[in-house]
Design a protein that fits this description.
heterodimer, A: five-stranded parallel β-sheet, 9 helices, 55% helix, B: five-stranded antiparallel β-sheet, five-stranded antiparallel β-sheet, 17 strands
Chain lengths: 209, 614
């Protein structure tokens, strides 16, 4: 169960805040890793677990908002911002860029834990989705080129005969490929396969109807 | 005299020598009488009467002794006496005639001498000529004429009557004009002309020649007589005068062109204020005719709203007799008014009386706009700077305090959690509690530092006339008040006792209150915006200053002094709090009374003997 033990990353240049947050969050059974700057955080190796990033807005060097921008392209944990004084333009930017919460110091325990909880839950779901997608990709990669060619026809609802005519083969051969696709993808029904294709972003051909 | 008196000896000598010669000749030739006559004649003619008589005596003696048969003591006969009487009579007659002749000739010589002297002194030469076949022939030129014509002393004939030299050659370019001159003199009796001549010395002179025709009783032309005079210097003087005159005319034209084209209006007035000149730019701008702008006519172009001020200004300048200036609007020919700077200067005589007023009116419309824009920018900038500084400042204070506070709160929660855990994490709880203590102390330190920062530097207390401070500040806010159409009225007690205080801080105090009053009337539209500042001695120990606006008033006037309290959209709420701290530092009191809907009065008192430091 250790892999699901959530982690909270704290990035704040004030050691007093780092210490206090570290103590408070560990008292709630959370793993805490603290960093004094954005650079330190970027360089570190992060454990594979649902996580949350508590990020100070006013950081020396790269500011909190800059770090948020850099992390947008990678699968970084959801961010909860902390700030010494709330200014409206910064908070708007942070929230627009997908921050979970914007906490103004000094903040209460409830606000903090709630924001951290929300962020970790969100990360859990994101991680779930990411792993599901990775699984699907693995299945898809087991298909032969011919099967990958036939898949769009199947999910579009074309009859085997029509698909065979289009691809210059018989309906029976298409039927055999179709069985292989269903098995390799682990689809229980055609509807299941259609959903998987959607997730993989496979373009459906125009419907025959 | 024509004959030098020193030559008397010579004269008598001449008489004796001539008699001796006559005697010798008479002896030699035996023709006695004729030679003696000749000797007497020569002596009396050339040596005068005395010498003549001497020669008569000598001749008679010689003649009678040598040539008459004279015997001592014996009357030789009547023929001797007769011959002697004839001889004597004849010689005496010769002396008499020659002496008379000599007398006349001396007079003529004298006259000529006087004439020559007069000519020399007057620098006028004279000449005469007679009509000839082709042209009149010059018969006479005076010595002065020779000098005028450039002959050196040695060349001037001593006997002026003999000179007949024509000074203007028949082939020179002046010749036709000379003939013309003769012709005109013949026709009109007298004529004159000026002739540029190159004289023998090489100098260029201008000679004026006057000719007069002389006619006999029958009216026939006998001769021409005339004068000549060198007028070169006179000509030079005339030319110089003409040049000077031209120069004056030129410089006057230049001055006029300058006055009429300088890019400003120029004018002048008589001592009584009657305008007697306006330059062309002035007339062109106003479109007034030159005569219409004279006197007080130019006032027609002054903006009606400025007319009073300009009239007062004119009166003031005229009364004081000193230069002055004023800004007023002038109407352009097309009806547009522009702002001008009127400046007047005086021309005084030696005793300090005004001789003339001179003035310029300079277009300052564009400059005025630029100034207004600059003032507005400055005001915006100063406000922006103030806001920005305070904004940054407050953000940094917030950060400084909130950091430890955040840590304290989080530590407190952590501490509670460790204590309530099963089993309690006592050690962790302890650590958290210790951090709370540490961070709390640090927060206190931050607050102390900020307080130190806020604390005013030592007050520089000096003796102050509050009225003066008020007037200075009123001038400062004048621009802002005018822009917002607020009339600032001062009602200052002239006998206000001085206070001891920090000038800059008291300025700041009054500035804040005035600005506050002006801004409080922003929303007033239904009545004139008036801000009254009043000072009075409240008691022998206290002076009172009141600032009354007629704005909308306040709900709770005294709450206004709390820091960060503000009713203004973009205010910081610090102004009145600062005011209070300044008044406190001066051991005074500050309060406000608000009449809902009718305005607020801010009052402060300061002690007269405010020796104590803050």
């Amino acid at each position: 169960m250790s892999s699901d033990n959530p982690i909270v990353f704290v990035v704040d240049d004030d050691y007093r805040v780092r210490e206090a947050l570290s103590s408070l969050l560990s008292s709630c059974g959370l793993r805490v890793i603290v960093f004094g700057s954005a650079a330190e955080f970027l360089e570190s190796k992060k454990p594979d677990a649902p996580a949350c990033l508590l990020l100070d807005l006013q950081l020396p060097g790269a500011s909190g908002l800059e770090l948020q921008q850099q992390l947008a392209s990678v699968d970084a944990p959801p961010i909860v911002f902390l700030t010494g004084h709330g200014d409206i333009p910064s908070s708007v930017r942070a929230m627009k860029a997908g921050a979970i919460e914007f906490l103004v110091k000094p903040f209460g325990e409830q606000e903090l834990l709630q924001a951290v909880g929300t962020a970790i839950d969100r990360d859990r779901i994101l991680r779930q989705k990411r792993s599901e997608f990775a699984e699907l990709r693995r299945h898809y990669e087991r298909l032969t080129p011919r099967e990958r060619e036939i898949l769009p026809f199947v999910v579009a609802g074309f009859a085997n005969k029509v698909t065979g005519a289009d691809l210059g083969t018989s309906g029976i051969t298409v039927g055999v490929h179709r069985g292989q696709i269903m098995r390799k993808m682990g689809a229980k029904s055609l509807a299941d396969l259609v959903r998987m294709a959607d997730k993989l972003g496979i373009t459906r051909l125009a419907s025959p109807v | 005299m024509l004959i030098n008196p020193n030559t008397r000896l010579r004269r008598y000598g001449l008489a004796m020598v001539s008699c001796a010669v006559a005697l010798a000749m008479a002896w030699a030739l035996n023709v006695p009488m004729a030679f003696f006559f000749l000797a007497v004649l020569v002596s009396s003619l050339y040596a005068g009467k005395g010498a003549g008589l001497l020669s008569v005596a000598l001749a008679a003696a010689a003649y009678s002794y040598l040539f008459l048969p004279f015997r001592f003591g014996v009357a030789i006969g009547s023929s001797f006496w007769a011959q002697f009487a004839v001889f004597l009579g004849t010689t005496l007659t010769i002396v008499g005639i020659t002496t008379a002749r000599r007398h006349v000739s001396g007079k003529v010589q004298k006259g000529e001498y006087y004439l020559a002297e007069a000519e020399r002194l007057a620098h006028i030469g004279s000449w005469a000529s007679v009509p000839g076949q082709d042209a009149p022939q010059v018969t006479y030129c005076s010595a002065e004429m020779f000098r005028i014509m450039g002959f050196t002393a040695g060349e001037v004939p001593t006997t002026t009557g003999e000179a007949r030299m024509p000074f203007i050659a028949a082939d020179s370019e002046n010749w036709p004009r000379i003939l013309e001159l003769y012709e005109k003199a013949g026709r009109e009796g007298i004529a004159e002309g000026e002739f540029p001549l190159i004289l023998p010395g090489g100098s260029n002179r201008i000679i004026r020649i006057v000719a007069h025709a002389v006619r006999d009783a029958q009216g026939a032309l006998v001769e021409y007589i005339g004068t000549c005079i060198d007028v070169t210097e006179q000509h030079g003087a005339e030319t110089a005068l003409q040049n000077a005159f031209n120069e004056i005319r030129n410089s006057e034209a230049q001055l006029r062109a300058f006055i009429n084209t300088i890019p400003t209006f120029a004018w002048s007035s008589r001592p009584d204020g009657f305008t007697d000149f306006n330059n062309e730019s002035y007339l062109n701008y106003t479109g007034l005719a030159a005569d219409r702008a004279l006197g007080l006519g130019w006032m027609a172009a002054v903006h009606p709203d400025d007319l009073n001020a300009v009239t007062n200004y004119s009166r003031l300048v005229m009364d004081s007799g000193k230069p002055g200036e004023i800004e007023a609007r002038l109407r352009r020919f097309d009806g547009v008014y522009r702002w001008f700077l009127f400046r007047t200067n005086t021309l005084l005589d030696e005793s300090g009386h005004v001789l003339k007023w001179y003035g310029t009116n300079t277009d300052i419309e564009d400059r005025k706009h630029a100034e207004d824009a600059l003032r507005a920018t400055e005001a915006r900038l100063s406000r922006a700077t103030r806001t920005a500084t305070l904004g940054e400042f407050s953000a940094s204070i917030a950060h400084e305090i909130n950091q430890p506070l955040a840590a304290i709160v989080a530590n407190a929660h952590a501490c509670l959690r460790w204590l309530s855990a099963e089993p309690p994490g006592l050690e962790r709880a302890n650590e958290a509690a210790e951090r709370i203590v540490r961070d709390g102390k640090e927060a206190g330190e931050v607050v102390r530092r900020i307080r130190a920062l806020f604390k005013h530097a030592t007050l520089e207390k000096v003796d102050l006339d509050l009225n003066e401070v008020i007037s200075e500040v009123v001038r400062l806010v004048d621009g802002e008040a005018a822009k917002k159409r607020v009339a600032v009225e001062t009602n200052l007690n002239k006998d206000l006792a001085h206070v001891t205080g920090d000038r800059v801080q008291l300025q700041q105090l009054i500035f804040n209150l005035l600005l506050n009053g002006i801004e409080a009337m922003d929303a007033v539209l239904d009545r004139p915006k008036k801000l009254i500042i009043r000072s009075e001695g409240r008691s022998p120990e206290t002076v009172l200053v009141e600032i009354r606006d007629c704005g909308v008033g306040m709900e709770d006037a005294n709450k206004a002094f709390e820091a960060f309290f503000t009713t203004k959209e973009n205010g910081l709420g610090m102004g009145l709090a600062v005011c209070r701290s300044i008044v406190d530092a001066h051991r005074g009191q500050l309060w406000a009374v608000s009449d809902r809907g009718a305005g607020t009065t801010f009052s402060f008192t300061l002690p007269v003997e405010s020796g104590a430091a803050a």
